[in-house]
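Reader question, answered in our methods column.
A reader sent in the components of a multi-part assembly and asked whether the whole thing could be modeled at once rather than chain by chain. We filled in our standard form and ran it. Here is what they sent:
COMPLEX SIZE: two components
ENTRIES:
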Amino acid sequence: MDLSELQRITETTYGERDRQRGVSSAVAWLAEEIGELARAVRKGDHSDRLEEFADVLAWTASLANQTGVDLNEAITRYAAGCPRCGASPCACALD
Amino acid sequence: MDLSELQRITETTYGERDRQRGVSSAVAWLAEEIGELARAVRKGDHSDRLEEFADVLAWTASLANQTGVDLNEAITRYAAGCPRCGASPCACALD
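And here is the structure of the entire assembly that came back:
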C-alpha cells in the first residue's frame, strides 16, 4: 500500500471522529499504540505484531492527516540514503 | 512510496547497523522519535513535522524488518474499514 493510500483510507474510516478527538488525542493514542507494539515485539506472536504495526501506521497516518502532512513528501527525507551522511548503507558513526 | 519500498530502503540504508543495535534499541529509538513528533506537532513548524513523521516511519519500518513483519500484510487490517465494526466511516462508539 502506498503512503497516500494509507492516508486516504485512514481519512475515510476515521477522519471525522479523529478530528472530533483532536490532535492531542491522536498523539496520546499513537503513544499508546507504540506501547502495545513494544509489548508485542517483546512477548507477542507474529499475529500480535501484525496487529500492532497496523495500529501504529493507522494512527501515524491519522495524525499526519490532522496536521496537514503528506507522508510521501515526508519520506523523501530517506529516499536517497541516510539524511545525515547521504550514504546508503549509512556511514555515520554508530551512536 | 509503497510500504514495501519503505521497508526496502530502510533495510538497505540501516539494516546492518540496526541489527547490530538489536530489537530493543529499535523500540527505544522509535519511542524517542514519537516524542520528537509529539513536540513537532505541539510547537514545531511544517518542516519539523515532515522530518519527524519521516523518522517515525523509518524506525517503524526498521523494527518491522528486524521482527519479520511485512507492513503491507499488516495494513490489510484496515483495508476494508474499521477492524472492530467493519464499517467505513467507522461506526464504533466514540471512546
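What stands out: Chain A touches chain B through 56 residues (CB under 8 Å). The longest helix of chain A spans residues 23-43.
Send us your own complexes using the same form.
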